[in-house]
Structure formats: C-alpha cells, structure tokens
Q: What sequence folds into this?
C-alpha cells in the first residue's frame, strides 16, 4: 500500500522542511512588510504556485529532464542573446524580455538549465571527466554566465556559474585540478577587477570598508549589521525590529530580509533558520547520494548546492561577509521569480528520489 | 554520443563511479557544514560579542536629540508697553545631505516659493557652519500663503521642510533701537565663544543694547526632546521631553512715550536726549537720532539696506547718546564753578571783570567771550546765568588743569558711567599727565583756559552729561545709570534680585556751595538774563539748567574765530543740561543737537518738552499686562 506522499511523488522530509521555511517567510514578511496583509496574500499565492510547480515536476520521471536538458539550455542561451540584443531596461540593467504582456527573465531559466546541461553532458560520460571534458563543461558554464554578467547581473551570473561548477566538482574532478584552477583564478582576479563596472568595483570597495561611507554605498551593509547585531541572542521580538520599522534597512522584504529576521529573532532565531536550511540541504544531499544514475546524482547534488549557495551569498552579504550582490534569501524573501525556479529544482529533487527503481538487494 | 570515447572510457566501472560521486556528496556535506559554521561564527560575533556596540548604534540611529529653543524674554517699557516681542515665523529649511541634486531642487523650489539670489547666497554661506549641519535655512519669514503652497508641494521635495519658530519683533521700530538694540543671527566668531549646548537650536543672539547686555537673562534655557526618527529623519514620536525655560522678561525704566516725545522734539536734527531719574539712576529716555529699524537686522539685513545705513552721512547706526563724544561747552560751567567754591579758590560774591576777552599773563593772545561787549563785573551766579566765558577762563586758570581734572572726574567725566548696556565711550577730561602720555607733549596754560568753557580736549557723552547733572541735582550722589528696572520671571512674575546700582558719593565740603550753583542754574531758566529763559516761561515747576554751545571746529587753533557762516555740518552743537523740579529733582537730562546752533534756543526747548511730559502728564495707569493678572506672590 503506497502512502499519499508516495503516490504524489513527494519527499516528506523535504516537503516538511520547505513548508516550515515558507511559514517562517510569511511570519517575517508580515513584520518586514509593515504588517501588510495584502503583501502576505500575494506571497502566499506565489508559494501556492511554486509548490504546485514542484508537485507537477515531481511527477515527471527524471529521464525526461535528461532529454530536455540540451534543448532547455539552447533555448535559454538564445533568449539570453535576445536579451542582449533587444532586452528591456530596468534600473540600469538589461535583464528582461518583454513577450506579449509578460516580462520574462531568461537568466532565471539558466539557474536550472546550466546544472541540467552540465549533468547531462557529464552524466553519460566516464567519470571523473578528463581535462577535455572539463574544459567543454567550463565553456558550457562560462558562456551563459558571461551573457548574464553582461546585463549586468553579477549576482545571478555568479549563481548560475556556481550551479554548473558544483556539478563539475561533484563529478569527481581531481582535487589537484580544482586546486590549480583556484590558483589560476587568484591570478586572474586583478584582470577581472579591471573589467568590472565602476559600481561593481565600488561594491567590492564598500564591502571591504563599509564605514568609510555610512550614508552612501556602505549604508546597506552597515545598517543590516547594526540590525543583526542589535538583535542579540534573543532578538527584539517579532514586529519590534526598530531598524526595520524605522526604515533603516533597505530592501527589507527582499534582499535584506535576513537583517529583519536577525534583529527580531536574534541568534536563536537565526540558528533555527540555518538549521532548517541545513536540514533541507542534508536531505538534498541524501537524495543525491541515493540517486541511481550519474545524471541524477550530479543534477540533485548541483541543485541542492546552488540552493546552499543562494543562502550563503545572501546571508553572507547581509552580515557583511561578502560584497553586496542582489541575491534574495531563498524561500524567505518576497518575490516570485526566484521562488518558482527554486521550487522547480525541489520538484526535480523529489522526482529523482521518488522515481527510483528498487535496487536489487 | 561522444565520438571521442576512449578505450579507457570503455572500461567504465559504475561501482567505482558511484563511489566517487558518493564521496563527493560527503565532501559537499562537509563543505556545507563548514561554511554554515562560518556563518554561525559571524552571527555569534555580531549578535553576542558585539551586541552592545550594535545596540548602541541602533539606539543612536533611531533616537535623536532635538534642541527646543526657549522663548526669548520680552522687553517692556516702564509702563508695560512691549518693546521687543516674539512673533511666530515660518522658514524653509533644506537638508542638503538628503537631496541628490541640490541645484535641481532649488530650481524647482523657486517655482513654488520666491527665493532670491540673496537667499541662496546666505544659504550657501550658512551651509558651511557646523551648527546648520542638519537643516540649513533657505528662506525666512514665509507668508501664510507660501507655507500653504509649499505644504501642497512638499512630497516633491524630500529634504526640504517648513520650520516654525519665533522671530524677534520690535513694534516701535527705530524709536527704541539705540536702547533696546536688536538680535540677529549668531555670527561665526560668536559661535566660537558660545556654549554650544546652551545655544543649541538657537540661531539668534543679542547684538546691541539691552538685547546684548541682558543676553543671559533673556536667553532662557534650551530644552531637549528625545525623539525617535526614521532613516529619513522624520519624527515619529517623542520619547522624552525636557521643556525649554523661557527667558526672563525685562522691564525697562525707559518710558516709550517719553522717548517718543524726545524723538519728536529732536525732529530732523541729529542728536541725543538722555533723561534719568537722579534718585536711582534709572534711565527714563535714551534717544539717539537718527535711528534705524532694528527689525531689519533680525533675519539678516540685506546688503542694500545695510549699505544705506552705513553710508548715510547722518550715521543712523551710531549711538550718539552713549558713544557720541562732544565738547560739553558751557554745560561744564556749573561743575567748574562748584569746583572753585568747593576747592576754596573763589567765593560766591567775588567778582571778576569781563571786558569781552581774556589773556594769560605775559601773552597777547585774546580768548574771546561769546559776548564781545563783555559782561562787566560778574560773580559766579551771573557767570552761570549769562554763561560768561571770561569768568570761567579766569577760574580755570586759577584752578589749574590738574585740580580741574580731579574735580570733574568726580562727576563721572572722562570715565564710563557704568550704564548696564554696552558700547558707551568714556569721554575725556584732560590733564597734564594725560597729555604727556597721549600726545608726548607738555600741557600749555592756554589749554587750561579753554577747558574752563568745556572746549579743547574736553569731551563728554550725552549720557555722561545726564549722569553728572543728576549728581549735581542730588548734591553729590552719582549713580551708574540703568536701563533695566526689573527682571521678572515670565510665569510667576517674581522679581529676580539685581545688584544695587553702583553709587559714588562726591564729598561735599559745604552744601551751600551746591545750593549756590543750583540756584544759579534755576536762574539760567528763570531770570531775565538767563540763557534759557525762553523755556522757563509758564513752567509749573522750577527747572535748573545750563545751556551750552560747543564749537565743532577750530578747537586746536584756540577758539580764535567765531564762524558765523559755515557748512551746516561744521556749525556749533547745541547742548542743554537740566533737572527739575529744582528742589526735589525727579528728572535730570542732557540734550545734544548736532550742529544745532545755540543751546538756549535749540536744545533747551527739547528738554522742556521732555520734562513736561514726564512731570506733568498724568501718572500712567497701571500697565495693562495680562501677566500681571497673576496674584502677587509676596505678601
């Protein structure tokens, strides 16, 4: 007799973790959004949509993902080129494609398409990949990432690239190759610096010393660290975050929501949230571990690690560990685009886990 | 699929590959946990170890201290008429830090509210001052219409706001300007010396007159408000309030009506009238004409108005009453006469023959009397009544400059009177020592001669003359004059104690000497030959006075020429000192009319009008002052 969860191809631990995170999201959003119920309702609808998509994708056997991977990647790349050529401008960046009445951000597709493509490319070939395949993989990663970086959207480019790189790393690339590449990157960094836009350089500089300009670019980091630090161990309590209520935290429902959370719920709340994230990640890694094909393993591992990357970059940014890059906190921040992509990847994870064939004992 | 599958690839070992991938999963888990621990470490660092630091920053973020400027003390005249008050005033303030494009904002603002180039110039200047680091005043004295118009447009102008405050207003304008003075914006130099806490939120300070001298009393105590603000600096709520304490009210001894009578009597003349109560040194009127409108200065006078005031040949900014140093002329004679009596060099019946001129022994130079025909044989009484110059040339010569100097100084000549408002000058009573010091020259006997008629180096301010006259009237009590009579708590009406006026008692050798001089002075006004007889007619009280006509030019040449037709600005100054009633003096005064001509015909009538007003008008009714409704506390 199959349980309902099994029949719906749901992975219960993952589902519970995600639902708990969604709950936390709504609680924090109520406070961060200035107790705006409308905002909460909108986000709830998005959650519904995203969970629906997850459920739908969970029903699709993973080999279908394997089949569409190159097509999705190709289409995504074409769209990125289209954005590059005729994209709409918003806030000084060219990220959107207007199709009919819909605005559409192709870089978001790439968050899934790149790990899918890399897993597709490496999964059918002997592992660990030789240098040639590793190089081909890098090209598969760098080309879309470069287009996205050109928009310019450093944050997404970074996430897309890291999603692909995670797959490559998981595929068993030799440690000494990894070490060599890291060394090469260190040498290339000054070159990268020269290629950066002024505002991007400014962000890095600001990150290095936020207090040099407390009202200018360093303001965001400074105010969010003040919020988190002043939260202390127990926090100021729900709806009592002065930093957020008095408007000191910028983008407090989106990129900086962790500052609101840290201020109101303190270290204990932050640890709880991190534990929950870790639980989901561990569950994801278990799914990858238990997966039955190399494609499935690489895909599951790559997706869950890029989920972790989101968390790391966002919290790192809000706590002043890494430069400010516009990355929302997965599942917690207000907004739909990244939520849909994320839940799609969890759908894929569930599909991978629930479509396993019984292993011959 | 991949055309380049090598031989090695053919030997794929799925078990090994699975193990490899699974190892990588475990490595990934380790990597994840490690990074999570770094994040946790960062959180512990922020939320545990630096919690206090960030808590403070967070508190400072939201809570700011706002200074609440106190209401400046009001200034009343002796009858409770307001001389300086506070009126509500709205200004436009700009916080440059909150504005991205200041020029664009200013341009857009100009379409809503009139902003002149002068406003922008001042704005740019004030921006540099640290005290305006938050909000810099752009426009002052907005009309109600302008306030309303801006309120509608306010959302377009973040960082620009209306400020409500109080502006000093002087309802009598120029009339009391030289006594009351004015407040104006705190200058950079003043700022350096002020206690920044005591003056936080306060933009004005007394610059001259009572406003300056009593700054401490008028200022009050700044209050503070702890307010919660958001990141835009908008006030959300008040956490704690420490209300400001209004400044103390001042009640002057000056009677604005008397002041007005004096000013009208002076008319278009340049000059000064100082009237005091000889009994206590209270200043009753302190007029310097022409004057200026103090209201012009309160919020920054524009350069056109200021240039007009500064460059006017009539010098309206010049306080003639306190700072005008004039030769006292014949008004000095009663004092010198008294000196002769008290020092025992003359007696009242001793005659001196006046042929119309005086010469020092062994010199041919003739010092002329104002009456070229001479006065004949004159005693002290006639010498004062008719203002005989030769008598006083002689007396001064007998006394010598040093005895003259010492005696005149007892009446306050040559030294500051000690009036309670600043700026007065000391005048000058020459002495041999002084001349050696100041001019590195010996004293010449001829200089003593002209000192006897209040010419030469001798200089006195109208205030000094009034004070000396008061000392004469009271037979020897010289009191430092005071403009402020009472300092009152604006709420309880309680009086604050004031130090007793500084009093100097002139040693009196023989009271009769004083009476002789006073009698002579009453005859100046009340006898047929008196130089001020015109004003004695139908005076219902007895006036004691002395006329003076001071030469403006030709002093150094030794008063040799009497110029009859000269430039109006080189004509003689007309002076008159007086007190009344002669036996029980209630008012002592000095009148100076620059280039007015004769003291008897020009200055004396002004004095008469002032005395009439003070002595004859109904004693003014109790001041109509709402604050007086509060029942008396002391019983």
A:
């Amino acid at each position: 007799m199959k349980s309902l969860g099994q029949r719906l191809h749901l992975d219960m631990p993952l589902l519970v973790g995600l639902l708990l995170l969604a709950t936390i999201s709504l609680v924090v959003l109520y406070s961060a959004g200035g107790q705006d119920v409308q905002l909460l309702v909108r986000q709830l609808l998005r959650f519904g949509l995203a969970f629906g998509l997850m459920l739908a994708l969970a029903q699709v056997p993973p080999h279908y993902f394997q089949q569409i991977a190159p097509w999705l990647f190709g289409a995504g790349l074409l769209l990125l080129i289209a954005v590059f050529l005729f994209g709409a401008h918003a806030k000084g960046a060219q990220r959107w494609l207007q199709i009919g009445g819909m605005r559409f951000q192709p870089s978001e597709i790439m968050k899934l398409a790149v790990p899918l493509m890399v897993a597709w490319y490496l999964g059918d070939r002997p592992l660990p990949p030789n240098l040639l395949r590793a190089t081909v993989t890098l090209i598969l990663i760098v080309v879309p990432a470069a287009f996205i970086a050109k928009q310019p959207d450093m944050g997404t480019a970074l996430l897309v690239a890291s999603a692909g790189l995670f797959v490559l790393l998981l595929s068993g690339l030799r440690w000494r190759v990894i070490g060599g590449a890291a060394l090469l990157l260190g040498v290339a960094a000054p070159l990268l610096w020269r290629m950066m836009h002024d505002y991007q350089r400014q962000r890095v500089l600001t990150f290095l010393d936020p207090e040099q300009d407390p009202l200018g670019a360093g303001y965001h980091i400074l105010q969010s660290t003040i919020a988190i630090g002043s939260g202390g161990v127990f926090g100021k309590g729900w709806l009592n975050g002065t930093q957020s209520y008095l408007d000191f935290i910028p983008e407090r429902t989106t990129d900086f929501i962790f500052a609101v959370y840290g201020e109101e719920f303190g270290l204990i709340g932050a640890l709880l949230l991190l534990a929950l994230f870790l639980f989901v990640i561990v569950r994801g890694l278990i799914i990858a571990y238990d997966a039955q094909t190399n494609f499935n393993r690489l895909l599951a591992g790559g997706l869950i690690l890029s989920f972790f990357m989101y968390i790391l970059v966002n919290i790192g940014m809000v706590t002043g560990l890494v430069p400010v890059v516009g990355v929302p906190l997965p599942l917690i921040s207000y907004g739909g685009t990244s939520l849909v992509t994320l839940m799609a990847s969890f759908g894929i994870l569930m599909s991978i886990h629930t479509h396993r064939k019984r292993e011959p004992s | 699929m991949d055309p380049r599958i090598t031989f090695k690839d053919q030997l794929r070992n799925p078990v090994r590959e699975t193990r490899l991938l699974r190892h990588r999963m475990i490595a990934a888990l380790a990597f994840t946990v490690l990074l999570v621990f770094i994040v946790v470490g960062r959180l512990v660092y922020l939320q545990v170890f630096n919690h206090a630091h960030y808590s403070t920053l967070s508190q400072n973020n939201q809570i700011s201290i706002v200074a609440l400027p106190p209401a400046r003390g009001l200034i009343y005249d002796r009858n409770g008429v307001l001389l300086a008050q506070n009126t509500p005033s709205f200004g436009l303030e700009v916080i440059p830090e909150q504005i991205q494009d200041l020029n664009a904002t200013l341009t857009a603002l100009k379409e809503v509210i009139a902003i002149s180039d002068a406003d922008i110039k001042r704005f740019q200047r004030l921006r540099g001052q640290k005290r305006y680091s938050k909000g810099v005043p752009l426009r002052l004295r907005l009309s109600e219409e302008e306030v309303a118009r801006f309120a509608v447009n306010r959302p377009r102008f973040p960082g620009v706001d209306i400020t409500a405050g109080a502006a000093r207003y002087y309802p009598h304008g120029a009339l009391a300007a030289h006594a009351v003075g004015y407040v104006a914006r705190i200058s950079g130099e003043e700022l350096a010396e002020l206690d920044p806490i005591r003056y936080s939120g306060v933009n004005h300070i007394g610059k001259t007159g009572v406003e300056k001298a009593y700054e401490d009393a008028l200022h009050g105590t700044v209050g503070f408000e702890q307010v919660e603000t958001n990141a835009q600096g908008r006030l959300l709520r008040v956490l704690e309030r420490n209300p400001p304490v209004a400044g103390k009210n001042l009640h002057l001894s000056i009677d604005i009506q008397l002041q007005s009578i004096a000013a009208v009597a002076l008319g278009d003349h340049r000059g000064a009238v100082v009237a005091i109560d000889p009994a206590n040194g209270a200043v009753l009127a302190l007029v310097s004409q022409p004057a200026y409108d103090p209201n012009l200065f309160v919020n920054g006078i524009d350069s056109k108005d200021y240039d007009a005031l500064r460059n006017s040949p009539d010098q309206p900014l010049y306080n003639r009453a306190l700072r005008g140093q004039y030769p006292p002329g014949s008004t000095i004679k009663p004092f010198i006469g008294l000196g002769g009596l008290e020092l025992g060099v003359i007696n009242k019946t001793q005659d001196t023959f006046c042929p119309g001129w005086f010469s020092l022994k062994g010199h041919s130079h003739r010092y002329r009397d104002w009456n070229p025909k001479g006065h004949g044989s004159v005693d002290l009484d006639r010498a004062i009544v008719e203002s005989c110059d030769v008598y006083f040339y002689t007396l001064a010569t007998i006394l010598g400059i040093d005895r003259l100097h010492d005696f005149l100084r007892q009446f306050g000549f040559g030294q500051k009177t000690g009036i309670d408002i600043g700026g007065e000058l000391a005048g000058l009573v020459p002495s041999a020592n002084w001349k050696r010091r100041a001019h590195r020259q010996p004293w010449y006997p001829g200089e003593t001669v002209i000192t006897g008629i209040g010419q030469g180096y001798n200089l006195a301010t109208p205030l000094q003359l009034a004070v000396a006259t008061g000392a004469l009237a009271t037979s020897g009590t010289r009191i430092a004059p005071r403009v402020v009579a009472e300092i009152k708590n604006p709420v309880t009406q309680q009086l604050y104690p004031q130090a007793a006026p500084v009093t100097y008692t002139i040693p009196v050798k023989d009271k009769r000497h004083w009476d002789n001089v006073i009698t002579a002075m009453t005859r100046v006004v009340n006898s047929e030959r008196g130089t001020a007889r015109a004003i004695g007619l139908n005076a219902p009280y007895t006036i004691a006075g002395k006329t003076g006509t001071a030469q403006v030019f030709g002093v150094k040449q030794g008063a040799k020429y009497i110029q009859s037709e000269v430039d109006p600005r080189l004509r003689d100054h007309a002076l008159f000192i007086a007190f009344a009633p002669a036996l029980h003096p209630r008012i002592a005064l000095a009148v100076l009319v620059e280039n007015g001509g004769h003291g008897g015909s020009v200055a004396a009538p002004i004095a008469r009008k002032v005395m009439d007003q003070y002595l004859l008008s109904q004693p003014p009714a109790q001041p109509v002052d709402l604050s007086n409704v509060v029942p008396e506390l002391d019983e």
Observations:
- The longest strand of chain B covers residues 82-94.
